[in-house]
Amino acid sequence: MARLKFLCDANRCIACDGCTVMCKNTNDVPRGTFRRRVVTINEGQDGEASISVACMHCSNPPCAAVCPVEAFYQRDDGLVLHSKDKCIGCGYCLFACPFGAPGFPTGTPFGVKGAMDKCTYCAGGPEEDLSEAERRKYGANRIAEGKLPACATACATKALLAGEADEIARIYRRRAMERGSEANAWGWKRAYGKSL
Amino acid sequence: MTNHLNDIRNARAIIMFGSNAAEAHPVAMQHILAAKEKNAAPLIVVDPRFTRTAAKADVYVRLRSGTDVALVMGLVREIVRNGWHDRDFIDKRTFGFEEVMKVADHYTPEEVQRITGVEPALLKRVARLLADNRPGTLIWCMGGTQHSHGNNITRSYCILQLVLGNMGKAGGGANVIRGHDNVQGATDMCILSNSLPGYYGLSDGAFKHWAQVWKVDFEWLKGRFDLAYDKKQHNKKGFTMARWYEGVLQPKEKIDQRDNIRALFYWGIAMESQSQMHRVKKALEKLELLVLVDPFVPSAAVVPDRKNGTYLLPASTQFENEGSVTATARQLQWRYPVLEPQYDSRPDHWIMFELTKRLGFGQEFAKNIKKWPDDCLEEWRSGLQTIGYTGQTVERLKRQRDNAHTFDLVTLRANGGPCDGEYYGLPWPCWTTDHPGTPILYDMSKPVMEGGLPFRARFGTEYKGRPLLAAKGVTMPGSRADGGYPEFKGVVKGTNWKTDLSDKTFRAALSKGMAPFGNARARMYVWTFPDPVPIHREPIQTPRPDLLADYPTYPDKKLQYRVDTAFASAQKADTSKSYPLILTTGRIVQHMGGGAETRANRWLSELAPEMYAEVNPRTANDYGLMDGDWIWVESPQKGRIKVKVKVTLRVDPYTIFLPYHFGGVFEGVSRIDRFPEGTAPYVVGESGNVVTNYGYDVVTQMQETKTGLCQIRKA
């Protein structure tokens, strides 16, 4: 079965926050909690770069490995989802996650009381697809409707890609090839200096 | 915009001045980044601030705010001295190159550095990149226009493109990206005080043309003006958006009309977007009647201290309206309504029609409108000859909208299907109902019936014995004329191409493969402007008084748009000692305009909840400030705002940057409790434009918000 993936092309991301807003609006994520964020490094200087980050739906998810109550499960298409009913809000997954994806309700000390909330790839949760219970706990289930995650559909520069891993790889490979053509060819700058 | 956004994909180089597209036009960035990736086009960003757009640049040029002319003329000089200019193009299709070079020769790399702070090596590198990578596109935005000599700045951009031969070419052009949805449409309709729709001006001829289109009597139309005060009152420019408040605050004798302004409609306008906002507030307080038409409650309802006479009319949103809108690239698109007007809201045209009825000229106002919006489009389409807003019928626009998928991403042309051969949006000029539209202006590689166009013959055939028409040999495929020719007139007796309401003149021209407006040279020397060739002039509030001897501003202007405008006298009062920091403003991606809509949006207000001032770490340390500290920012005109410090390297140590989207707080006091129940936005903040300085463009009266002075102190 095809695996579903995200990829954010940092050459294209302009930190417009379109993905963040689409995510919050589609899934009704409460104020103060974010399933997706745009991170910028080296702001205002050479080398400034931005990237949109959410749960990367790892093949071997460390969050699931440390969860004491086995709240996580991985679907056949690779999506890593969790049950808010099982979750005890311990926050171990947050420590384990390399992307800082798990979020917790705000307004409590350290923000770790209450069930964890994270990106579902717009695929809901363990409840019945498109049910009211699923909507209330996990937000939208666009995957069940045959749609892509909302964040990627809103990307102004097509930096954020979502879909089957093979397809994303094909798109990105093509971009890499184009960037490596003509005066962008690998080694060109080293050979002939920075002036194109 | 001579070219279109998608056409940026054809660019071999991109140079952007005062444009932060990554925040202000995120979708345009898609095309810019595509050109960068696919064509290896170097992206050069020129801006006083290291913006998110600069983060994507191959070359970033930090210049002192408001010194673009010096830099651009320096580039022109460098290009010409190295023989990189397009001699053939300059000789045959432009006018005034000698005069340009007389000015440009003054801007040596050393002089450019003295004015702008840009190092000679960088200047030379940029010139080289532009010369080596053609055609290149030049993009600018408000950073280039909102200056007291903004008209010089934007004209210098065009000169650079002409010298490089980048005009009228796919991937080239002088491209200003407009700031809002349908701003281009609003401009074309001339929602301005200096012209009737279609840039016809305010002459009697212009009024007669429109009286004919509107089917009203010319004398009646003229009689609507205060002819008892001055029988030429209808030919006079009115107040501008930037300075209407002077019409309220100045004594009667100082304004060019009988009485002060006493009533005001703020129709979808944010007071936050106006410079000198503390004075705007005073004017709003002095008015007898203030009517606010907006889907959201604007700050003008709560910031001014008014007791009575304020009315809020709830306008419906774009989703509840139908009609055409015109995008930055002169493209029209039909917009279907998504839903009926909600609650008590009414569409703008409904409000306008009801208002004119009650004011007693509803009959004349809506004479030709039986069916909305179709008849409205038909009405303006029959009178907008000047810019070829004539071939875009409702039927064609709807057909394009319904078949948008049949158009090419890069050329905009439909390939087969019901719109075969048309360009998306029928970009004007779209002369006749069978013309496909003109996606790239002045492109002579195509026949005129496929969207080709020469430069317009606007200013006669010669100036002081020198030819203004294009040289022999300058022609386009299928044209019967070799070389330049004047505009068409007399095809229908007593009319020219601008005033012939039938399409006979257009068809006569098109059948010969010629443009109705002639084939002339682009003027680089504009004898009708204060500076015929753009020269650098220091901003009114300059941080560099040492440059005033060489680059002073203009003399004061009498009754410019009905009120005096101070230039030299305002500049003479050197304020740079007590206000040592440069103040500049701009947009952030989360908010729009004055922010009434976006600050009332849950998610956007969460992402950008607070007003702030960007301060360089060095400046912060010198002033003893830390990230998050409160400061007062004060202007030489005694405007002051209390905002938080954001310490960032985006600005240099001499500059303070303010976003302009916040409102609802004035001089440190929140007015959020004054909003009618349930209408307060999620977030309010001090308005950056309270502290933007006095200064207005000498031609357009555009406010000088991009270069001013300020001082900061800990609050």
What does this structure look like?
The complex is a heterodimer of chains A (196) and B (715). By secondary structure, chain A is of the alpha+beta class. Helices cover 26% and strands 13% of the residues of chain A. Chain A has one domain: Alpha-Beta Plaits (2-Layer Sandwich). A two-stranded antiparallel sheet of chain A has the order 1-6. Chain A has a two-stranded antiparallel sheet with strand order 2-3. Chain A has a two-stranded antiparallel sheet with strand order 4-5. In chain A, a hairpin with a 5-residue loop joins strand 4 (72-74) and strand 5 (80-82). Chain B is 25% helix and 14% strand. Chain B is built from 22 helices and 25 strands. In chain B, strands 17-21-18-20-19-25 form a six-stranded mixed β-barrel. In chain B, helix 3 packs across helix 7 and helix 6 (109-116) crosses helix 7. Chain B is globular and about 70 Å long. At the A-B interface, helix 1 and helix 6 of A face helix 2, helix 7 and helix 21 of B.
CATH class of chain A: Alpha Beta
Residues in β-strands, percent of chain A: 5-15%
Radius of gyration of chain B, rounded? Answer: 25 Å
**Quaternary organisation:** heterodimer
Poorly predicted runs of chain B are none
Give the strand order of the largest sheet of chain A, numbering strands 1, 2, ... along the chain.
1-6
The greatest interface here is: A-B, 32 and 35 residues
Please give the number of β-strands of chain A. 6
Report mean pLDDT of chain B, rounded to a whole number. 96
Main sheet of chain A? 2 strands, antiparallel
Continuous helix count of chain B? 22
CATH architectural group of chain A: 2-Layer Sandwich
The share of residues in helices of chain A is: 25-40%
Q: Could you give a short account of the major beta sheet of chain B?
A: 6 strands, mixed, barrel
Distance between the termini of chain A: 45 Å
Radius of gyration of chain A: 19 Å
Give the overall shape of chain A, derived from the CA principal axes. Answer: globular
Spans of chain A of at least 5 consecutive residues whose pLDDT stays below 50 are none
Number of helical regions of chain A: 7
